[in-house]
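Repro case for the chain-ordering regression, as requested:
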Amino acid sequence: MNRRALVAKGIRDVLPMFVPAIPFALVLGVVIDESGLGHLLGWMSSPLMFGGAAQITLLSLLGEGASVAAAVSAALIVGSRHLLYSANLAPYFQQQPAWFRWVGPYMLIDQVFALALLHKDLDARSFRTYYLTAGLLFWFLWLAFTALGVVIGPQVPAQWKLAFAAPVLFVGLVVVGVDRWQKALVALSGAALTFLLASLPSGSGMLIAAIAAIGIGMVADSLFRTKR
Amino acid sequence: MTVLFAIALAGLGTYLTRAVFIIAMARRRFPPLVLRALEHVAPAVLGSLVVSMLMSSASALSFGVAEAAGLLTAVLVAWRTRNHVYTLIAAMGVLWALSAI
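-- result from build under test --
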């Protein structure tokens, strides 16, 4: 495939994949508005972090008055799945020039990982062209739609309860990610423990609950290994 | 200033999680224990966050029958369709319908 065809393919692949991300972008805008942290400042998380769920996590926790340490830790735990993406793609980045090994990871979001894995057998130059096309297009769309969300958010009447969309989207992420009962148990444990530990200061209850829930999942996995 | 610092810190951390193996440790493999823990990170944190968001006084969300029904709808629609757009529309629809009554 020549360069032009690769760019065209990248664009064709990205556009349908971005549609499910639109509600996340708009809800992030609402979260930024509700957090009271400032529109421009909140939106800066899009270029600086470029990760939907982690951004929503960080800004909603900061808006709730959590400490910087707790909010950043929670956002990084949400983003820790990127470690797996990095490890999975590392072999295919070894023939790449150094600049691309530094720039590429910045745009390694869920969708780019999925597309990169599908195109890992391209030659190094073609892979780079395809990856950068997909990554930059997602980046541009994400910045544009989160800005749109920040602008639209405050215009929506309070009776619409748009803030409810954030937990709804996260429930959707949990449900889609559950591929065995242990993960459902983990999600429910995390939720229940967060409720019980809610009185702990500055968001630390949520962190303790999440870590305990991960432990519960690992115990459940090792007790019922044959079910995997 | 504190907020910008938090965002920059989270941004740097996010970049590092994406870059670490690609830049520095291409030949390293995860210990199996870490891999098993990582699998449970998403449900644990997302489950906790849902409750944390709903209990937040800042977002002024009251949790009543309409909200409970909305979340239940979200679970069912996400499970059946695996589509976030449908999930959002259905859950918000239920919330609005029950709030209007």
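Ordering looks correct now. Chain B has two domains: 1-30, 40-100.
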